[in-house]
Design a protein that fits this description.
- With about 475 residues, this protein is an alpha+beta fold.
- The protein has helices at about 10-35, 40-60, 85-90, 90-95, 115-120, 130, 135-145, 195-230, 235-270, 280-295, 315-330, 350-355, 420-430; strands spanning about 80, 100-105, 110, 150-160, 165-175, 185-190, 275-280, 300-305, 310, 340-345, 365-370, 380-385, 435-440, 445-450.
- The chain contains 13 helices and 14 strands.
- It is about 45% helix and about 20% strand.
- It folds into four domains: about 10-70; about 80-190, Beta-Lactamase, CATH 3.30.450.20; about 195-270, Helix Hairpins (Orthogonal Bundle); about 270-463, Heat Shock Protein 90 (2-Layer Sandwich).
- Helix 11 packs antiparallel against helix 13.
- Strands 1, 2, 3, 4, 5 and 6 form a six-stranded mixed β-sheet that branches.
Length: about 475
């Protein structure tokens, strides 16, 4: 064997030896049977031909691939893998839950798994990476890898329309040819939004809770001190203080529940829901649960619109939206009035514009969260109209701020915590929907939310 012989030559030589030996033994056995008269000459010749053919086939199948077709050894120093190795893992990558993309020359996306299609909103046709992922640090890392540099890890954050924190692993792949563009880039996106938000949520919760709980706790401490002092034997004062203490305690309970709910919503805001829910049925259930509260003020709640409206959403969170909006409508409507809740299924851009402009041109209107209306997307819309005094234009931009309450809505201990509309906003953001408010002083306020009624899915056959 010469010095230049490939490593497979020795193995091929041994297989050739084994094949010849087995064939010779088989032919010898046939000759013995022929001369002993056990078989005839035609049968012996046929058997010899069959054995020779099977031996040749075995030799071909057992031989290794040619050296040129073997994948190149990975460069351990740069942690590189070959395009051949990547292609053998295609079936596995198809089912990975995190986004994976293969980028070729010119920064064009050659393949993307379903998770990448959904996360980046890719169409059925491949396009430039820069059109789908506008992150200079990532694009610079990809360009560097395509030039033959080593792999990189890049982190980036976005805050609009949805906050997200992503770590991108950019891995170089050696192409099968040695042309002008021998390298490709494999991108693996790891979403770290949940962990980042968990860290921030702990700090926000402590800051918000300590700020909002300070006043009721101070009131409770003052009442307890009074009851232990000169009001110990004053039955009338004791009953009055105990009622106030109960109200303050209930408000603190509502506040803590709302803070926890807001924290849970913010944790999952970057992950869109995938469930199927009937928005109309859920709204009717919410109305039934709040009817006793409305009757205590002489208010009736009427449901109008479509009997069924299927949406892509989390039923518990959608129930929380309807509950917050209807509770606010009851709270700020005048006694002995009427609240209207209506649901419209499968609406588009024109219907949304019409339904969210129901109070006329003189009314104040604000789009808190705008839905994506491109690509013929359809939505179901829920509107809740109260019978209150309305909200002035200057207050509309701040309605979804934490703990913000319009002047005149802060007096009683049973008033809201100022977190309800903030919770609604974050739930709508998670559902990739829309949130609108319009109000006209003296004629009430209408809150409208729209939820996607269909979900675009990545085309089959990609990565």
């Amino acid at each position: 064997m010469s010095k230049d012989s490939p490593p497979e030559s020795e193995g091929r030589r041994l297989r050739r030896r084994d094949t010849i030996a087995l064939t010779a033994i088989a032919i010898a056995v046939l000759l013995i049977l022929l001369f002993s008269g056990a078989i005839s000459l035609p049968v012996a010749l046929t058997a010899v031909g069959a054995i020779a053919a099977m031996s040749f086939i075995y030799y071909l199948l057992a031989s290794p691939a040619s050296p040129d077709s073997r994948p190149a050894e990975p460069d351990q120093g740069e942690n590189r893998i070959t395009a051949n190795e990547a292609s053998t893992s295609g079936a596995m990558l198809e089912n990975l839950p995190f986004p994976v993309l293969l980028v070729g020359s010119g920064g064009r996306i050659e393949r993307a798994n379903p998770a990448a299609h959904e996360y980046l909103g890719l169409g059925s046709e491949s396009g430039l990476l820069s059109a789908s992922l506008r992150q200079p640090k990532v694009l610079e890392a990809v360009s560097s890898v395509l030039r033959g540099d080593g792999g990189k890890i890049v982190e980036y954050s976005t805050f609009a329309p949805i906050e997200s924190h992503v770590r991108v692993h950019v891995i170089p792949l050696k192409s099968g040819d040695n042309g002008a563009f021998p390298w490709r880039a494999l991108l693996v996106l790891a979403d770290e939004t949940a962990s980042k938000r968990a860290e921030r949520m702990r700090g926000d919760f402590l800051a918000n809770a300590s700020h909002e709980l300070r006043t009721p706790l101070a009131s409770l401490a003052g009442f307890i001190e009074t009851l232990k002092g000169h009001a110990r034997e004053d039955i009338e004062a004791r009953d009055k203080f105990l009622n106030i203490m109960q109200d303050q305690t209930e408000r603190m309970g509502r506040l803590i529940n709302d803070l926890l709910s807001l924290g849970r919503v913010e944790m999952d805001e970057h992950v869109p829901p995938s469930g199927d829910t009937d928005l109309s049925g859920m709204t009717q259930d919410t109305i039934d649960s709040l009817t006793p509260l409305a009757k205590s003020k002489g208010i009736t709640i009427d449901f109008e619109g479509d009997a069924e409206a299927r949406v892509v959403g989390d039923r518990d969170q959608l129930f929380e939206i309807a509950q917050n909006l209807i509770e606010n409508a009851i709270k700020y409507s005048n006694p002995n009035t009427r609240i209207v809740c209506d649901v419209h299924a499968n609406v588009g851009r024109e219907e949304i514009d019409r339904l969210t402009n129901s109070l006329g041109r003189e009314a104040g209107r604000l789009t808190i969260t705008s839905p994506a209306l491109t690509g013929g997307r359809r939505y179901a819309i829920l509107r809740v109209r109260d019978a209150g005094s309305g909200i002035e234009r200057r207050h509309l931009p701040r309605l979804t701020e934490r703990f913000y309450r319009v002047d005149g809505q802060k007096s009683g201990p049973k008033e809201g915590t100022g977190l309800g509309l903030a919770i609604v906003k974050h739930i709508i953001s998670r559902h990739r929907g829309g949130f609108f408010v319009e109000s006209r002083p003296g004629e009430g306020t209408v809150f409208s939310v729209c939820i996607p009624s269909q979900k675009a899915r990545p085309s089959s056959g990609d990565f």
